[in-house]
Write a structure and sequence with these properties.
Elements lengths: L12 H16 L3 H12 L7 H18 L14 H16 L3 H7 L3 H18 L1 H25 L7 E3 L3 E3 L9 H29 L2 H16 L8 H6 L4 H18 L3 H14 L9 H18 L6
Antiparallel strand pairs: 1-2
Helix pairs in contact: 1-2, 2-3, 4-8, 6-7, 7-8, 7-9, 8-9, 8-13, 9-13, 11-12, 11-13
Length: 313
């Protein structure tokens, strides 16, 4: 429900106030498209029969006319055609992303341990976030874990199927010990790389359909995979750091600092603090590992960007 059936109080009053303030700021800066898109997100939080919904609908229409009258203006994605055309475009985007991978992803669900642990995980987060966001979270984590499995298979290393732990996350149990830091880094960073792909696919759908849920899934995917870059314990960042030389570790610390200054994302402070501690320790390898280093840098930049996209849950 968007409003109380008794007193008619708006359920999302706080979010609506924030969106209104953001839209006004955009308008004052001459950013009419951003202002219109923000008002459109606010519309989804208002009951269609309310007076506020009518007022905002008129405001969005007025902004659309002003934008269309601007030199070089292009139609907004939300007004580019019928809903079924936009939905079809979203399906095509997902199809391109999953092409060649869908059979492999479905294969993981044939394992009873994966399927039932995933179902339990989904049930827990359904009660917290609702079924739609919980489903997006589960699929995102599953794709992340299958990234590890894909790399393990490519390297011929035995491993179990992904296992979900409700309230914690998921993991893939290796069936043999890995001594080579470069191999360990490839396996560890494959998860965030696949997770980034899932996040970008969700973001693409969000941009095409203007459905805030997809933006929320993309943003949450960014947070989860960025958190996994913390170079500690069994997290993926620790496995990536394991293969870096001394100067590469400090370069990662510098990249985290730059990313924080540009975005003010607090999670980067935690990752950076642990990275400094790890950089102060003697490096296991002396020769620079360019692939692991480049992958780490790209993941920091792309995942941080995903965490900062505007999204309404």
């Amino acid at each position: 429900m968007l409003s109380c059936p008794v007193c008619h109080t708006l359920v999302h009053a706080g979010a609506l106030k924030d969106l209104a303030a953001q839209a006004e700021v955009y308008a004052s800066q001459g950013k009419l498209e951003q202002s219109r898109d923000t008002w459109q997100r606010a519309l989804e939080l208002l009951p269609p029969s309310s007076r506020q919904h009518t007022v905002l609908t008129e405001r969005v229409a007025d902004l659309s006319k002003r934008i269309a009258a601007m030199p070089g203006a292009r139609p907004a994605a939300s007004a580019s055609g019928p809903w079924w055309k936009r939905a079809a475009t979203a399906v095509i985007i997902v199809g391109i992303f999953a092409l060649g991978k869908i059979k492999f992803l479905v294969l993981g669900l044939t394992k009873a341990s994966t399927f039932f642990s995933m179902f339990a995980f989904f049930g827990l987060y359904w009660s917290v976030f609702g079924w739609a966001l919980a489903a997006g979270l589960v699929v995102s984590i599953y794709i992340h874990e299958m990234g590890h499995v894909a790399e393990l298979r490519r390297l011929g290393i035995g491993a179990g199927a992904p296992l979900f732990i409700p309230g914690v996350g998921a993991y893939v149990l290796l069936k043999q010990h890995i001594d080579d830091p470069a191999v360990d880094a490839r396996i560890g960073l494959a998860g965030p790389v696949w997770g980034l792909g899932a996040g970008l696919a969700a973001y693409a759908i969000y941009r095409v359909t203007d459905v805030p849920l997809w933006g929320a899934i993309a943003q949450l995917t960014g947070f989860i995979n960025l958190f996994n870059l913390i170079p500690v314990w069994q997290l993926d960042g620790a496995r990536g750091f394991h293969a870096l030389s001394g100067w590469q570790r400090w370069a990662i610390v510098g990249a985290l600092g730059v990313a924080f200054l540009l975005t003010n994302e607090g999670l980067l402070l935690l990752i950076g603090a642990v990275a400094v501690y790890r950089a102060l320790q003697p490096a296991v390898v002396r020769e620079p590992n360019v692939p692991a280093f480049a992958t780490f840098l790209v993941l920091i930049a792309a995942l941080t960007w995903l965490t900062k996209i505007p999204a309404v849950t």
